[in-house]
Amino acid sequence: MTSSTIAFHPAVNLRELVARRVPGYSLEAPFYTSPAVFDADMEHIFSKHWIYVGVSVDVPEPGDYMTVQLGQQPILIVRDDDNEIRAFHNVCRHRGSRLCAEDKGTVGNLVCPYHQWTYDLSGKLIFADHMQEGFDLSHHSLKSVHLRNMAGLLFICLADEPPADFDAMAEVMTPYIAPHQIDNTKVAVQVDIIEQGNWKLTLENNRECYHCTGNHPELTVSLFAYSYGFAPKEETAEGLRQYEEMVADRHQHWESCGLPSTEVERLSDVSGFRTMRMPLDRSGESQTLDTNAACKKLLADFKDASIGGLSFWTQPNSWHHFMADHIVTFSVIPLSADTTLVRTKWLVHKDAVEGVDYDVKNLTAVWNATNDQDRRLVEESHHGAKSKAYQPGPYSPFTETLVEKFSDWYIRRLGAGLE
């Protein structure tokens, strides 16, 4: 089956592709290379599920806004005068011009640059000059987008009826995330990378650490070998037992301090997610080159920097790492079948002073290196998927189980959309 065939008969052939997917194996090449599959991904995955887009402190004050582009849909996120964060389609109700073109900014009201139609921060049209007598401003408010703020993590959904199970995820995850107090942080650094590869390859790469030992020397400094890319063998059984005992002991201690830590995995839910707080190796304070805290001013009211790293993954487009001194949060936004935006934010305490409490180079060193290494891996995989020699390969039953769970989730959700 070729990409051109899919383009002519997308509905029939997409269903065939979904139906013949073999569990335990990577996806067929068109899932990574076909523009028709990309269009289906945007329609059935990114337009119907909760998509992580940023943090509450991206818009810290009333009038602050940020913009996000999901496929052809420009979205505007703004904090209103009542300190509520809202999301709208970034489209004027007059003749469709984008209201805000910048990634971030601050406004008093939302004024269309074309004909100056003006909206307040709640989305209500409050001024439209040169319209007929009796023109009803109230019938032309901005079109809202569903937004949920989960302990400072912002998710939007473009569907008329968004998945209701977000509430279940929020109920579980809020106690895990809230102690890190995102609302009392600031975005110290944001780095955007454009990967020349399909978004699913980015997610698959993130969902395993089979590749970490040979590719991520900076990241693995703070990770225990038994916590990633590990296939149990008889000669390593004792080391694994000791690691598991240490994890159980740390979890008991952290939970006694009010930090939920035990693993929760619901990757097959419509709003799939997974979380766990894991010990960090060596000094055990942070994901840095020396594993010491990158920021002297710890988050929230933490007194001890050695609280491990809380990891949180969501389907289909995010992962996050929460430590005592800083937070690293990642979002994946598809741009085309062949290009993907990976956006990384580093958050520190809002009162931390650059050059005094933290050094940007040290704060970002591990994940800047890791992101660049992952970009190369994704791009090489994308090149390979375009080869006529490519065929789906088997996942490791020890180190790629989460890749299979992502692929299974994706196939089931795409299939549900096609039906």
From TrEMBL:
Residue span, Rieske domain: 52-156
Cofactor: Fe cation
GO molecular function: dioxygenase activity
Keyword Metal-binding assigned: yes
Keyword flag Nucleotidyltransferase: no
EC number: 1.14.13.-
UniProt KW keywords: 2Fe-2S, Dioxygenase, Iron, Iron-sulfur, Metal-binding, Oxidoreductase
Enzyme class, first EC level, given as a word: oxidoreductase
PANTHER family for this protein: CHOLINE MONOOXYGENASE, CHLOROPLASTIC (PTHR43756)
Family note: Belongs to the bacterial ring-hydroxylating dioxygenase alpha subunit family.
Protein name stated in the entry: Aromatic ring-hydroxylating dioxygenase subunit alpha
